[in-house]
Amino acid sequence: MIGQSDDARVDASIEVFPLPVSKNHYKRYVLNCLRAAILLLRAKADVYHLHDPELLPLGILLRLIGKRVIFDSHEQYCEKMKSKALPKAIKSMVSSLWSLLEYIAARTLNHMIMADSYKFERFPKGKATVIANYAPLRIIECAKNKCSRNDSHFRIVYIGGISSDRGIEKTYEALTLLVDDEIELHLAGPISDEELRGRIENHKGVIYHGFLPWEEIGALLSKCDLGLILLQPIAAYLYYTGENIVKLYEYMALGLPVLLSNFPRLKAFIESLDCGIAVDPTSPRAIADAIKYLRDNPDVRKRMGENGRRAFLERFNWEIEEKKLLKVYETVLKGSKQKAVP
Question: Could you say which architecture CATH assigns to the domain 45-132+319-334?
Fold first, then answer.
């Protein structure tokens, strides 16, 4: 594995070749790409599986010299670019450039993988596979040792990146409307905004767990009553179909009903499973009303939680998706190593 890391190491038989960790765009997008190119060529691998958009031109070059290359488009970068704080002309130019690169890649690389079905139809048949961000079954192991609770607190939880565009401000406002000392908001994940971090850490109704190792996420979820995914209506999120939101399946695995944004595809998904409620993520009142309804109706909460858990066990876990990934590798390895023509 080649990526930003503090050191070279071997983890569970995975050898890590480190690139310098940096938030500087030039160092990441230019220098690290050059370093990655050298490491990739030295690797002499059977398959090159690339994840980062800045590596796509390198993937096309690798394919043109006869390497087997898979590109994993786990974000819809054209949509994401529209949400960046950049001049409109630059956003339009970068978005168009990405579309062109993606078009070339789809017809040059051995295979394209995406985390959701939104753009699946745009790719050539037989060269694209949707492999969703479902959680592995082992996340539920910690639920077997679920701690007993000796209080009546209703615990809401959000895991993942914590920011305004992911709904933290609207959640705060909703909690203010509820004015209930027995409601707790549990947060776990990175916060890049220091001012926001200060407000979170000083809020009496919020318990911030910091950045937790994945192995500890299940233990936290097993002690909570409701999972939140209140993404705000920006281009980077509006297209979401559900397959790419790993926290959704982590909540479902632990039997938590889900309160999530009422974007058309997300709303249809959650209602088809009856495992949560879709609300207007910009409305603190709608959020507060949904929280109160689920708190005051434990039977509904239990039914939705059980529906979600059953769906996770039967349909939406990584053990199902990994078979699809292994099939992609098998297909690519059987293919020709001859140079591709765009």
Answer: 3-Layer(aba) Sandwich (3.40)
